[in-house]
Amino acid sequence: MKLRPLLVCFLCALPALLPAQALDYNAAQSAEQLRAGVQAFHRGFYNDAWTSLEKAISYQPKNSLAQTWLGRAQWKAGYEQEAIRTWQQLLDTGRGGALIRDWIGVLNFRRGLGRELSGKTTWVVTAQLDGTLTGGYQFRRPTSVKPRANGSFWVVAFGSNEVLRFDPNFRLLDSFRGGLAGFDRPYDVVEAEDGSFFVSEYGANRIAKCNAKGEKITTFGSKGRGDAQLLGPQYMTLDSRGYLWVTDWGNSRVVRFSTDGSFIQSIAGINGPTGIAAAEDKLYVSEQAGKRILVYDLNGNPLGSLGEGTLTQPEGLTFTASGTLLVADGNRIMECDLDREVWTVRGDTSAQTRKLVQQAVTPNGDILGVDFNQSRIVLLSDTSSLYAGLVVRVDRVNSVQFPVVIADIAVENKFGTPVVGLGMDNFTVTEGNAGVASPSLVLANSNVKAFDVSLVMERSPAFEAYRQDAVKAVADLYGLVTPAGRIKAVSAGERPVREADFGETRLRFVNQALQSAPSAKWRFDLAARFAGDELITVPTSGKRAIVFFTTGALGGTPFGTYSLLELAAYLRNSSIAFYPVVFGGGAPDEQLGYLASATGGRLYSITSPGGMQEVVSDIRARVGSVYTIRYTSPTPSQFGDRYIPLEVQVIVQRVSGRDEAGYYAPVTTGTTEK
Asked: ∠ CA 659-636-394 to the nearest 5 degrees?
């Protein structure tokens, strides 16, 4: 009889116990699916990650971490609108923070919802490299600055007779003084593709050609008024045909030389030639006394002038990536839209500089300006980029050798352009806001040499007419890729098929690339997506590219499963560039050009004189977004069950960005733990 009250109490408590057990079960299942989703994400299986993360949320609808990762998987998979929707739900329920709000803003901007608001912006001075400061490297009277593709930049110091090279953080990398003979009032520098460079020597009335070590190889020009002579050479440029043009101040002309120093021609009658720049088939020269820009064709024939009534002291010239012309005009930077001949003030440095003589655009979209009188270089940044900051994204974490961790970090500006030239001191890596041990930069994006290629073969009946040409092109492409890279082949039939994997011999690769039977129902979207999957799920430390051999016509339903925008986003977010090669003389479908442009690739014709060499050269030259960092984790892994948070912050000058991700260590069965 004494047991009855206890039994009644137990039965009364049972309904309360069962929900608690169910909650424990749901929490455990949600945690397991979160783990599976995060691990699939870091292996590049974004669709699998998507599935697992949705399951995690089904077990625990308020699992904010799973919902955050779901948005990341959707973003990387190319479904950017779904990612925005997923993250917006977090914000709407008060469970999302500033980082998620920033991600939504970035995606909206890149999808075009905000670009129209960016319009034309102005640049403001955000940093200075002062050659007079005691604590830094001292130089005097700079006349020229020239950015390099890897983010470093040249400075020519007229007053201290040296040519310097700095990194993006304004640290000195090299100092060249011209060997035993020295430089005599160097004025400008132009770098050739092989790493050699030319220096105009104002004081010696000559041009010096130096090797990559800064040693003089040869000099040409001498004092005088003859054809091959100079009086105070200043600015230089290389035109699209490989000729070197020099402004000859004392002779009121510009002179064209071959790169071996042979005189070609001169253009006389320029009243105070200062800056010079070449673009496509035109030459632009600042005429200081005439307060205008003179325009010539590359044979020296006059085409007209620009800037009358607008410019006051035109000097250094340079072009932006979009093809507009920048002019150093007193202490203003003026920009000219050459198509419309519309001038705009892009930056006014009168509060910071005394004599702005030249400017140049860096690969990261900033402007470096030369202040001659105050011996300093100023960095100007787009005001909108200062507000938006950098976009930092943890793309992949490899924890197989835990506690050693390898992380791929993408760093871009708001437009998706890679930020180059960063060092380890630009990165701060933490786990749960605790510093990690021995962080090191394993690979910087501008130093990547290796690359992986997926060759996609259109298997339409129409492509069979070009089979013989295609076989030769496949063999050529294989031979050009394999010394430094890897290549596999995918057929674009009704269903995509991997025809040849990495490591095949040249003969087998060529034979297998076109072995699938042609079909009128071939599908471009499935093949492009499959080729991308083939690249991102394979470990690599290089660049990724899809080369597509095609007639240029994509067929009846080219985007039946994946839309054009989804494909572009998927490839772009995975740092895969698209390079279509068109066989035949017909006009290619516009979608091919769009996809190439959106991913950083390019459209080619098989009849191009450069052939496959041109394609592979472009793949080699492309700069991606990813930096690879290795460090030792300070966090106990709990035998692989613990979610380890990872934070990465990047600061370049005054612009910064941050990402928060995470990973799991491998499952272990040992008895010891950190």
From this structure: 20
